[in-house]
Amino acid sequence: MPTAAQTLAWGEVWGQEDAVRMLQAAASDPAQLTHAWLITGPPGSGRSTLAYAFAAALIAEPGDEHAVRQVLARTHPDLTALRTEQVVIRIEEARQLVERAYYSPSLGRYRVIIVEDADRMAERTSNVLLKALEEPPERTVWILCAPSDADLLPTIRSRVRTVRLHEPEVADVARLIVQRTGVDPVVAEQSARHAQRHIGMAQRLATDADARGRRDETLRAVLAVRGVGDAVEVAARIVQVATDDAKALTVERDEAERSSLLRTVGVPEGGAVPPAVRAQLNALADEQKRRATRSLRDGIDRVLTDLQSLFRDVVMLQFGREEGVINSELLADLRALAEFWPPARTILVLDEIAVTRRNVERNAAPTLALESLLVAVATGRTST
Question: Is 363 helix (H, G, I), strand (E, B) or coil?
Fold first, then answer.
């Protein structure tokens, strides 16, 4: 029988039994433990959840439920975690991680360093980690998370042990969402399908009717694009919706952070801000702007992921496959488009979506990038 601490540590990890067995064995047997791990898997597969469960098993003494709870709450002194909400991980952040890696554990068995978004490290930033990965302290364990090992430099990949997660089935995700939220099973299945088995996104869609409505409205608007004028209008609408979503997610948090900073330095609500504090407020504002930029780009990428599913459905229908269609609610429109377009045009659009995703990730202006994509949708040719 697993102990309460073990159940707590691994209980949130879902659908990854092979990975759990491997990491449980490593946590309990030093002979199977390496100093650096890479957990890979598609978005929503539970990379971060598994990383923190592993960290809890490494840090906590057997049966120490309190320490497990601290790790899972990200508050244990022997855990250092980095989850960027910016476009990239800054080199200064990587240097701070390396510095922390050389501290001995203060309370637990190991010191654990988690990098949740290791794929967002530029080459210079990755190189900062190399020395720590090459010559690790005896009781420090690194856990990196990324969608694929190809997202990291070969020099990083050669110094880690990789744990690959698999994508769950739609039906399994739907059952999990019903268990977690109690939503109608039909809504859960639709949300799991539309989220393409991304657990977090499926849960958001299942519990947010507005989010489901915005997704449906966006896909229908793209299907209705017939010319350059439509492309410009729909691109602007998509960016505005993504901007509004980003603001809704960040504005309350931004104000709470600002208020907390002012309280910490002793400035009463509505009081004058001393010159010495303004630099801290400006630094916080800059950090929040970078986070807002990341949130907007993530929102645009989610829209592009939805569009990929739409035109993937079209090309499947063009090749005579209806089973596995993601957007079955739009099946009549998809069939009409599949009959009207040649497959080559659909594949061109899918290629353009992939290019657009890369361009947005590389800081292209979202509106211009989407306009270019939708021109390809409208005309069947690239705008370059």
Answer: coil
Contact at 8 Å (CB) between 111 and 105?
A: yes
Distance CA(238)–CA(41), nearest Å, equals 28
Strand order across the beta sheet in which 140-146 lies: 79-82, 111-115, 140-146, 36-40, 161-164
Amino acid at 217: E
Tell me how crowded residue 341 is: count the other CB atoms within 10 A of its CB. Answer: 18
What lies within 8 Å, CB to CB, of 142 at 6+ separation is 35, 36, 37, 101, 112, 113, 115, 129, 132, 133, 136, 160
pLDDT value for 110: 94
Amino acid at 113: I
Q: Report the pLDDT value the prediction gives residue 207, as an integer from 0 to 100.
A: 93
Angstrom distance (rounded) from CA 377 to CA 231? 8
No. of helices (H) and no. of strands (E), the chain: 16, 5
The confidence score (pLDDT) of residue 353 equals 95
Fold of 4-164: Rossmann fold (3.40.50)
Low-confidence residues in the chain, pLDDT < 70: 1-6, 85-87, 249, 252, 382-384
Q: How many residues are given for the chain?
A: 384
Tell me the domain boundaries of the chain.
4-164, 170-207, 228-379
CATH of 228-379, one of 1.10.10, 3.30.410, 1.20.272, 1.10.287: 1.20.272
Phi, psi of 78 (to 5 degrees): -95, 10
Instruction: Write the DSSP assignment of 28-43 as a string of letters.
Output: H-GGG--SEEEEE-ST
Residue 277: the pLDDT is: 75
Among 328, 348, 89, 28, residue whose Cα is nearest residue 193: 328
Cα 334 from Cα 339, distance rounded (Å) = 9
Distance separating alpha carbons of residues 107 and 61, to the nearest angstrom? 9
Residue 301 vs residues 40, 304, 366: alpha-carbon distances, Å: 19, 5, 10
The token pair at 84 is 């960027």
State how far the Cα of 381 lies from the Cα of 231, in Å rounded to an integer: 13
What's the predicted TM-score (pTM) here? 0.70
Tell me the sheet residues that pair with 145.
Answer: 39
Q: Tell me 200's DSSP state.
A: H
Q: Torsions phi, psi of 261, nearest 5?
A: -60, -45
